[in-house]
Structure formats: structure tokens, C-alpha cells
Amino acid sequence: MKHRGVQDVMTRDVVTVESDTPYKQIAEILAEHKISGVPVVDSEAHVLGVVSEADLLAKAEYPEAERHRRLLDRPATSQARRRAGAGVAGGLMSAPAVTIDERTSIVRAAKEMDRHQVKRLPVVDELGRLVGIVSRPDLLKVFLRSDDDIREEVETDVLEQSLSIQPSAVRVTVVDGVVTLDGTVDRKSLVPVAVRLTRAVDGVVDVVERLDYSFDDEKAVEVTYDYGRDRTE
Question: Both 74 and 100 in a single domain?
């Protein structure tokens, strides 16, 4: 099975700014392109940080009289006060930026977004240069696969190629991403494996298992073990 990665769903044409880009120009760029954040890069496309709408709004949240750091401020508040007084991207940005490699899986990217509580991640190559950006909506694209595509992958990649199960033995139906496996396999131990591999197919929302088996190989192993133990006692 071929799992789709970040490079399959990311936006490659990325709008960026440099560290000396003025506040107003950044605000105009966000509005023009209808985006909520923009990477800050150097001359070699290395990501220095990210400026988001929240970073820009710090200037409105903390008027000039309230921009001095206070003793009991939390770290996030201190950073917001600092950004409120900045006039260019280098001072406004959140840094260092959380980035991911272009070969990262979609699952890993989703976990990174959740862990760092961000809505987007700059995607970099092996040299740390910006090659794209991935957002939460991008990660959801994997669930837009058609039911027919999912069914074909389950039948071919999971059942036939991975488990050597003939198509006539198990009927695969897919409705709104929910896969139903209905039929009979040779061995009982194949049932959980078939479910696990099917669940791992990109776009699968859930798996309904209605499988029977011809031979209980798990019970046979238990009997063999008991027989061997009796002979040694």
C-alpha cells in the first residue's frame, strides 16, 4: 500500500515574506491571498519563522502604553507585548518555526499540528529550504477519495497482494469511506490483520468486519502447546 504524504497534499506555491517586510505590507498580503499566516524566509528560502493574524493583532491588543514587559506576565503574554511593538516581520514572527519534512506522513503532520497547536506547517526539503505549506484542510483531502478508489485499493493491495485472499472470498463494499468486509478467509488469524490493514488505507473512515474463517489456527497453536507441555511434565 502506498500511503500519501505531506508532499501529495501540500500547497507548493507559497506566499512568503522576508524579515524586513513591514507590518502593513504583511497585513495586505494576508488579506489579498485570504490566508491567516505567512512564512518568513531568508535569501536561501530557509524558514526563519511564521507571522500569523494573531501576531499582527497583538498591536491592537496591547496599545503602546501597555507594551512594556511586566513582572508577572506569562511567557506568551511577554511575547505578545514584544510583537505589539514590532514593525517588521522579524520582530512580529513566532520563531523558531515548527516545520516538517516533505516526506512526512499525513498522520504525523496532523499530530504535529495538534501538539504545537498550529493551523499550518511550512514544509521543507532535506536542506531545510521551504518547498510548500500544509494546512488542516489539506490534511483532510485524504478523506475525499472516492469510495470506488478505496474499494479497489482494499481488494487489490490489502486482500490480494498483502494477504493472498482471492476477490471471490471476501466482498468489499465502501459507503462514505466506511469499509465492510464480508466473506470467509482461510485462517482465523487473518481476520484482525485484514481489518488492521484495511483501516490503514488512506481515506478509510471505519471498518465493519463480517468475516468468517475455515480453520481456527489460533486454537490449533494452543492445543499443540498444551500437548508439548504434557509430554515434558
Answer: yes
Long-range contacts (CB closer than 8 Å, 24 or more residues apart) made by 145-149: 145/177, 145/202, 145/203, 147/174, 147/175, 147/176, 147/177, 148/174, 149/203
The grid cell for 195 is 481489518
pLDDT tens per residue, range 5-45 = 899 999 999 999 999 999 999 999 999 999 999 999 999 99
Judge whether 194 and 222 are in contact, CB under 8 Å.
Answer: no
Q: Are residues 149 and 114 in the same domain?
A: no
Name, in order, each residue with C-beta under 8 angstroms of 99's C-beta and a sequence gap of 6 or more. 47, 121, 122, 123, 124, 128
Instruction: Count the domains in the chain.
Output: 2
In one-letter notation, the amino acid at residue 162 is S
Domain with residue 69: its CATH number is: 3.10.580.10
> How far apart (Å, rounded) are the C-alpha atoms in residues 76 and 63?
17
Instruction: Tell if the pTM clears 0.85, that is, is over it.
Output: no
